[in-house]
Amino acid sequence: MKIAFQTLACPLWDWDTIVSEAHRLGYDGIEIRGIEGEMYLPKARPFLPQNIERTKVQLKELGLEICCLDTGCSFHDNEQFDKAITEGQETILLAEKLGVPYIRVFGDKIPDQAKQADTIRQVARGLEQLGQYAEGKGVTVLLETHGDFNNQEIVSEVFRLTQSAAIGLLWDFEHPFMHGEQPEVTYKNLSSWIRHTHVKDAIREGGEKRLTLIGDGEVPVPQIVRLLKEGGYTGWLSLEYEKKWVPTLDEPETSLPAYIQYIKKVLAE
């Protein structure tokens, strides 16, 4: 398995710092969710037409890969559906230019439980539409276990309603577990769709969830990695440490060395 971190962990770093630190710390790659304050990745400075070839050369020289481009696309909101499709399509084209295998999208919310089936169908429609667009481009569109789409039952139903070969699942370790689903259940029912992972940890305090450094929370990361190993997964273990959204979290100078040291020990077990 290969090791990456998502750029939410280092929101104040510029691009050159991100790649130089990834190389120095021994990471295999980077997952992009915002660069230098720009969250719409086709507009991010390193990926602009005048810069993209230099960026590709820089990554190659440092022995780094971009494992995934993370969009903000959510398909639960009918009013934002077309906007999400447009962002997804533009990000697919960027991924194709960069040689990045995955983009990430969300189902996100089920606003009305009485209309859950309708929301699931709409999310499946968005995923399928982007999947069809991605076919032949070397890019797979990944639905993340996130928000209300955080358990195997709902996620399985989404995939049952799709057909494209260019779609898959991003297993965020924390979301299903912290909402009461055991990793064995998640893996058993979703393993055929898993293409990528987010490694994240958290703890419950007074009924609320608090994000932590990997290994300091309740998420059984070693157990999940063993499940993946035994199932033949050879993809990425990508740290999602959401300092961009939770500024009180540790600085990247702490979180990024801590993660790679921790996950290498887990992989060696």
CATH architecture label name: Alpha-Beta Barrel
Enumerate how many helices there are, as a single number.
Answer: 9
How far apart lie the N and C ends?
13 Å
Largest β-sheet summary: 8 strands, parallel, barrel
Question: Could you say what the CATH topology is called?
Answer: TIM Barrel
Number of domains: 1
Number of strands: 10
Structural class: alpha/beta
Uncertain stretches of 5 or more adjacent residues:
none
SSE topology sketch:
Elements (H helix, E strand, L loop, with lengths): L1 E5 L8 H11 L3 E4 L19 H11 L2 E10 L6 H18 L3 E5 L9 H19 L5 E5 L7 H9 L6 E6 L1 H5 L4 H8 L3 E6 L1 E5 L2 E5 L8 H10 L5 E4 L12 H17 L1
Parallel strand pairs: 1-2, 1-10, 2-3, 3-4, 4-5, 5-6, 6-7, 7-10
Antiparallel strand pairs: 8-9
Can you characterise this structure?
The protein has 269 residues and is α/β, with parallel strands linked by helices. α2 links the parallel β2 and β3. α3 packs parallel to α4 and α5 runs parallel beside α7. The strands form 2 sheets. Strands 1-2-3-4-5-6-7-10 form an 8-stranded parallel β-barrel, surrounded by 4 helices. Strands 8-9 form a two-stranded antiparallel ribbon. The model has no long low-confidence stretch (mean pLDDT 97). The chain is built from 9 helices and 10 strands. The two termini are 13 Å apart. It has a single domain, classed as Divalent-metal-dependent TIM barrel enzymes (TIM Barrel, Alpha-Beta Barrel), CATH 3.20.20.150.
